[in-house]
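INFO batch 0412 | record 1 of 1 | parsing
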Amino acid sequence: MANAHEEAVRTVYELIKDVDVAMLTTVSEGKLVSRPLQTQEKEFDGTLWFLTLKDTVKYDEIQKNPNVNVAYVGKSYVSISGTAEFVEDLERKKEYWNPVFDKLLETSYDDPNVVLIKVTAETAEYWESGNKLKAVKNFAKKLTSDERMGDDSDMNETVDFNK
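INFO prediction complete | emitting tokens
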């Protein structure tokens, strides 16, 4: 039987595997700022990978405060809180590089300005909005009980990757 960490990883992987672009949120002078980034690694193992440039605001923000959030919207909503770090790994950058980036970023994977963002997940919260049967059952249960409509405990869960 899988331990709690393996189960959390598998659950989150199943929810985000078909979503290519995530919203990465950083802290900027006391306020939160989000921007879309393409997830580079499809096999989620508790870490997320992104490519960026060092001469960007997000690079400076992560340098000052590595606490980030990564949000995915697909058949479900997934919010992953974690810690970001920069990784210099030429082989991994080459593996993740897409020819579209040549035009989009106006550079190549071996440019020293290109860097990897590695986000180590600490917790993930998700809402299974894509599970229509579960949503209907949850709605019917609330209609026939004293539960408030805002209580989504059956549709919403949090997993801790540190356990």
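INFO post-check: The radius of gyration is 18 Å.
INFO record closed
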